[in-house]
Amino acid sequence: MEVSAGAQALPSSMNLSDIPGIEVREKRIFTEESLYGYIDGGAELYLEYGFDTLVVTELISEGRDIKVESYRMKDAEAAFGIFSVSRFRCNGGARLTDHMCRSAYQLQFCKGCFYVNIINDKGTEAEQKAANEITAFLVEHIVDPPFNPDRFFEGGLDMETMKSAVLIRGPLGIYNGIPVLIDALGDLSDYTALIIRKDQQIEASMFFDTELAADKFMKGRKTCASADTVAKNNVSALTVITPKHITVSF
Description:
By secondary structure, the chain is of the alpha+beta class. The protein has helices at residues 36-39, 43-49, 76-86, 125-141, 159-162, 171-177, 182-185, 211-220; strands spanning 22-31, 51-61, 64-73, 99-102, 106-111, 114-120, 166-168, 191-198, 201-208, 224-226, 236-242, 245-249. The longest helix is centred in the middle third of the chain and has 17 residues, at 125-141.
């Protein structure tokens, strides 16, 4: 099911037909109500993070088919969250924006509230080159900055740490991004957490929507020790930064 082009989607400046050598064959726009018609069972993951609109554009580049899925999420954290649980076996190559993952058949990136997935058929050098050109065009026309981890970890995180960082907002994000924490966090709601691996530990910086939700989390963590206790034997070290901001080391 598709909706009219009048629905909120990509900025008007992000017209992919403006890219030399690119022909737009078809464009479809999906809202929250129609997302299931495109990705069926996978829609719940996007809704958990905060989904707004999906634009699917079928392109032809020098006779080759390329599909561009542009997800507008509710905010930059939601866009990075989807990116963080979707990237897989990223290759190297030119870094066109802060958060991107490139493989032969796929190029994913997020910037501002957009998560974009570019898919080609054969993984040829020409198709990968076209994906790079599409990415460069979109990155230039997305005016909002990339996701910044400073809210979660003061002073930010280095590029290597960010390669495996996962942002979650519920059990589906945990299951898809860091399933080892299903038992510890799988029953939570009303929060956003950025999870990193550091010094052979998993660290989670968690912002709760309300103080009540944070309090409920702390009361339910029977395996949590104080922050000055070394986390070991499946015991979590917990630190309260503010009434709604808690860090946990697993």
